Amino acid sequence: MQDRFIYADNAATTKVSKSVLEAMLPVLAEQYGNPSSAHKMGREASRLILAAAQQAASALGCKPNEIYFTSGGTESDNWALRSAARLGSEQGKRHIVTTMIEHHAVLKCCGELEKQGFEVTYLRPDAQGRITAGQVEAALREDSCLVSVMAANNEVGTIQPVAEIGALCRSRGVLFHTDAVQAVGSIPIDTAAMNVDMLSLSGHKIHAPKGVGALYIRSGVALPPFMLGGEQQRGRRAGTENTAGIVGLGQALADVTSDIGGRSARLAKLRDRLISGLMEIPSARLNGHPSERLCGNVNISLDGVDGESLLLMLDAAGICASSGAACASGSLEPSHVLTAMGLNGQLARGSLRLTLGDDTTEDDVQYIIEKVAAAAARIGGL
Ligand SMILES: *Cc1c(COP(=O)(O)O)cnc(C)c1O
Q1: Is 327 in the active site?
Q2: Counting atoms of ligand 1 from 1, which one is nearest the CA of 202?
Q3: How far is the CA of 281 from the centre of ligand 1 (A)?
Q4: What are the tens digits of pLDDT across the range 329-340?
Q5: Fewest CB within 10 A of the end CB: N or C in the chain?
Q6: For 291-326, how does the pLDDT look when each residue is reduced to its tens digit (9 = 90+)?
Q7: d(Cα 99, Cα 178) in Å, to the nearest integer?
Q8: In a domain, 1, yes or no
């Protein structure tokens, strides 16, 4: 009975795919040259990185020399926020606009910048987790140097109107950064059409390994470097490149964007089936937007049910899920995202996030519905 295993925590991290692993193995085993070396091995490694930048560029609708490889989403966010703030302050602009529901990689940078004298406006989302371009417009000031709004939220999956916000920022001459870590591979990304200046992504959320990511920096944006040292990556991101990870990231980006329509339609169908099954539970309510939502994301609250107990029961039934964000669970603090959306502490603590992936089947969805319903009936106390 306990043999069943379902991984429904793909927003926390994903499995390295077979094609990514196959692309990486020869790099780890044989093509170990330092990309900065002038000899044959070095040139080969350097060529692999260029090929990955080309894959990333076609996935994002940009040029290969606008891609900078980093250690992941957190570094990309830190680089974008801190360096854009520095750039702004050199022009006497010390105001930043962001949202209350960003990932902590963005929020903690904003907190740090506030200590350094920057002013930050944190936009509150509506009850479905949406921010509007109108809210951004109302918050902009003469001294605004940066707007950072995530493309899609990691907890509730709500998709933001990034293209509209980008057009607004471009017309006002304010830099626009988006954390697209969760959006890449789920919704089509076109940096040009979206008018973004900087975009963060991470490998391990799209079937590449942990510890590799990228920051897109639009050419013409004079973003200062964040990591100082060698002259790698056009002098803008020092440190010997993680060649194998970068090759894996390039392959993953090519894979997740090759049939994004088909893949997201399949996942959205499973997601909607899961949502409608879970909504039959009397104490359940859906968190996030009903339609402007990532294809693999389900987030519900069960009134009167403690999220942590629910997770443990699901874990015992072989289901990996999450309550709030991965980094927030373990602490008893309710999720900052759900709280910003207006949920009370009770409902925010009773939240359950199930994030589906390419391996999820219809059978899995049925099994999850049964197990959540059974757990809710038991813990709910009736
Ligand atoms: C996971 C995640 C990050 C952090 O990425 P890492 O590669 O784990 O550092 C940042 N933003 C969002 C929205 C995420 O989901």
Answers
A1: yes
A2: 7
A3: 31
A4: 555 688 999 999
A5: N
A6: 999 999 999 999 888 888 899 999 999 999 998 644
A7: 11
A8: no
